[in-house]
Amino acid sequence: MRGKMSRMDWPLLSIALCLCAVGLINVYSGTRVLGGPGLPLFVKQLVWILMGFLVFFFFYLMGDGFIEDTAWYLFGAVLLLLVVVLLGGKVRGGAQRWISMGGFNFQPSEFAKVAIVLILAKYFARRYEYGGLGFSDILPAVGIVAVPFVLVALQPDLGTAGIFLIILAGMMVVSCVRGKVFAVLAVAGAAGIPGLWFVMKDYQRQRVLTFLDPELDPMGRGYHVIQSKIAVGSGGIFGKGYLKGTQGALRFLPEQHTDFAFAVFSEEWGFIGSIVLLALFVSLIYRGFLLASLSQDRYASFACGGLTAYFLAHVLINISMVCGLFPVVGIPLPFVSYGGSSMLTNMMALGILANLARTRFTFQGGGGGDSLES
To answer: For the whole prediction, is pTM greater than 0.85?
Structure first.
């Protein structure tokens, strides 16, 4: 145990601690009623953070090769849970995305993100070629992602399903897919976008229209984005001060502790505070890609790159959504937004990153990973 802890990636863990601390104080501020405490969700989030670190160390302490060897089992378990959600999951707000066990609700689609990264890393590590991967190599990977994509889209949750596609694209980059393959897929994807309009549900179409012009329904579907931009803008350079924000406390800003947590933070800490928070996320993402580049093991390199792409996608989409630059799709801000499933998934991803940094970067052999030097 002492030897394993001595090889801990402390920069990675330190960044996670800082982000969790920011998220915790932000949940307290965002859920309080003006003039009163916001303890209930604060305590719940603290419990999720503590459970998250248990998950982190659980995956960090796994032996070399265990994560890679069990990737298919994890992927299969997640698919089974996604089917269970569709058959008897909890319905909330017209969406069937949760499995309820007593007083505990969790979203299998969150864990599916990590499972997809691990299984794609295993697949691409086996198919890797120095000349780059072609269409015949990519099609099975698309098929792998298509299964959870359809299951999650049926919930319906196109935001999370879209993250699966972004993860696939990121994995294609780190696994060196040929440029012409990217070009063809990009053209095909762009050509298929108009067709999405006809398969979207009414509320999803309204989200797109609201994104294009929130003022079309300022007291209805455009309300979230308008109030979010007011909160971000009213923070100014230095912010209003901690616990002095009004958009969240007076409940002008909906979902202020989940999807729009960054708006609450920006109002209270201003532009300077937002830059500091973004610097923490940039440090996390830089560290993840650095680990991917340092590894001499294909599986570890691809998995680290894919998990970092997962974090990058969440940060970019959530902050763009809060600032009105992207449609509202319900993507949480890692470690900052309130939520158990999201917190546990983020900690799981970090634990796997730290595990691979410990077991695959300083020696080769064991666990079945292919060396880049082979």
So the answer is: yes
